[in-house]
Design goal:
The chain is of the alpha/beta class. It has helices spanning 13-23, 36-42, 54-61, 72-78, 104-116, 133-141, 164-169, 182-195, 209-240, 244-252, 273-286, 290-317, 345-355, 369-377, 389-397, 408-412, 432-437, 454-460, 473-476, 485-488, and strands spanning 3-7, 28-32, 66-69, 81-84, 121-125, 150-154, 174-178, 204-208, 326-330, 359-363, 402-404, 417-420, 444-447, 463-466, 491-493, 500-502. The strands form 4 sheets. It has a 6-stranded parallel sheet, sandwiched between helices. A 6-stranded parallel sheet has the order 11-10-9-12-13-14, with helices on both faces. Bound molecules: nicotinamide-adenine-dinucleotide and uridine-5'-diphosphate-xylopyranose.
Amino acid sequence: MVKICCIGAGYVGGPTMAVIALKCPEIEVAVVDISIPRINAWNSDQLPIYEPGLDDVVKQCRGKNLYFSTDVEKHVSEADIVFVSVNTPTKTQGLGAGKAADLTYWESAARMIADVSKSGKIVVEKSTVPVKTAEAIERILSHNNKGISFQILSNPEFLAEGTAIEDLFKPDRVLIGGRETPEGAKAVKALKDVYAHWVPEDRIICTNLWSAELSKLAANAFLAQRISSVNSISALCEATGADVTQVSHAVGKDTRIGPKFLNASVGFGGSCFQKDILNLVYICECNGLPEVAHYWKQVIEMNDYQKNRFVNRVVSSMFNTVANKKVAILGFAFKKDTGDTRETPAIDVCKGLLGDKANLSIYDPQVSEDQIRKDLSMKKFGWDHPGHLQLLSPSASDIKQLSVVWDAYEATKDAHAICILTEWDEFKKLDYQRIFDNMQKPAFVFDGRNIVDVEKLRKIGFIVYSIGKPLDAWLKDMPASKITIESRVPKFMCGQCTSAIQEY
Ligand code: NAD
Ligand code: UDX
């Protein structure tokens, strides 16, 4: 029986391994993690991540050929194939801080594999890593000189959160990069055989190691670039009376462009896009390619501009102040069908509004109050060094201008304005007449996801702003200012690192 072990039971490791276990009943899969609460949750009825369809897959295999364990060393030493799916966040300190990928977790996993292995293994990079990481990993794995041979493969993951199971069942492609040697080819074939249980052969692409590593960064950069492109056009639509939905439909009809990933929004979020583009920018700079670095950096700058633009629109529409006004925030996750809040645009928008002294009432169907308070009290990249949370938690629990409620009607009661920040389906079906009746007047809706029926809401009496849609007379008369979110938010210095921390 082939044994697979995956180091890292997160958003990627958990679902990916569950699907491998489901599709390959003769393979034993162990998912290991240093986080005891996370592993306990994987072994319970309340899985640590919300992902449609995941419960069902886990239930079918857990205890049969799928195991979750904190006994990292035992499972790694017994495995034939070791996937490494640990987090690779942006570095917050030292060389390359703010751009380069932090490979601390990866390196410590690689050292541990080298230390505990008694037989040769295939080590698979599942995490997103800088191009050429495999070379460094090879050096680490061979450092103990036990004469054990390791083959490194790059097998980046392309799943998106919220559709992870669907994406894993029917991937557009599976990418496997390996050394162009007989041993490398043998390792590639072994991993290909695993995926071939359910993925058609023509969808399994085999390349050299560096192409596989770089393709992952490039794919995320291309996807994010589409969103920044359509978001830049949304600003021009508002200035001219064009409608961004109509423009992106017309543009996307060109088969060379295609219709996907052209929805204008308050900005992209998630743990990958920003981190991976920053990583790409850093690699370009290190390789003496400043023009290429500058090109990709613009994708992030446009995303920041879009979030700033949204906050400014809210404040300027409401007579240039939201101080002491209740603003309902509908949706906090970075997209629908996930409880993940990493890099969600809601963090920046809420910080901007809190900086202008609004009273926020937040509702998200999947995000807990604890998580929201944590996110709003941490500095950018705060989750990367959770040790600092201790320092910040007094202010986290103490944000007085903030309440987190478990119902959209409660959030919007007596509010002056509603900001829709996640495109949850339930927000499309709300009784907006009832909501209007219970709000302060004039009642505003700022739709950061273009999900409401603008005309219907205007008929009810709302003043409606929807990204990239023609503005109504009220909004035209209140031109948005150009203040940035950062300048709205007071800062102090963290005692444990050199970065400024935003506080309320
Ligand atoms: P995550 O933070 O959800 O999970 C990573 C897990 O690794 C954590 O549970 C952590 O405790 C564990 N870990 C860290 N060091 C460890 C060690 N030495 N031994 C054992 N466990 C360890 O991260 P994620 O979202 O699953 O992302 C993992 C990787 O996959 C990242 O490189 C990311 O860029 C990439 N990726 C993520 C997505 C996504 O949608 N989240 C999609 C594609 C690729
Ligand atoms: C992304 C990639 O899609 C996936 O292939 C990769 O493996 C991980 O990173 P993810 O971040 O989970 O996946 O979600 P995705 O659907 O890409 O959305 C990212 C962000 O872009 C979300 O905030 C989403 O709301 C936003 N988005 C997406 C838009 O604003 N407009 C769009 O048209 C599409």
